[in-house]
Amino acid sequence: MSSEVSASVSMTLPPDNRFVHGRQSEGMLYTIHMTEAEAKTQLEAEGCRNISAWLDSPDFFYSDHSHTEATSHIVVSGRMSLTMNGVEHQLGPGDRIDIPAMTIHSVVMGPAGCTYVSGDK
């Protein structure tokens, strides 16, 4: 007996299609290796607003908070651990997570800090 499971991810890929893997969780987490400029261009192409690059220091912590708009975060370098709905997501270079509006989450940056790009939807 065999069973098939299919999933789809809707997104705009960089021209060379550097999509590595995808999985559905509380938000959406998938990996596309890109530079800071490419990450900004990606979020702009998706219609995100308030796009910014962030460089957080080692072990920097954002306590539980939420945003009124859905947000997307793409890690360019370093690591972060983002906890949302009781699930911890370990993010590294190229990883992306989309957080639904009004979803409470917290973030701890890795021991070398983290550079990431974020935008609102």
What structural class do the secondary elements suggest? mainly beta
Give me the strand/helix succession: EEHEEEEEE
What is the CATH C level class, in words?
A: Mainly Beta
Please describe the biggest sheet, giving its number of strands, its sense, and whether it closes into a barrel.
8 strands, antiparallel
How many separate structural domains? 1
Total number of strands: 8
Q: Whole-number radius of gyration?
A: 14 Å
Beta-strand proportion = over 45%
Mean pLDDT: 81
The share of residues in helices is under 10%
**N-to-C CA distance:** 43 Å
Q: What best-fitting shape do the alpha-carbon axes yield?
A: globular
CATH architectural category = Sandwich
Seen as an oligomer or otherwise, the chain set is single chain
CATH superfamily: Jelly Rolls
CATH topology: Jelly Rolls
Unreliable sequence segments: 1-26
Q: Given the structure, what is the number of helices?
A: 1
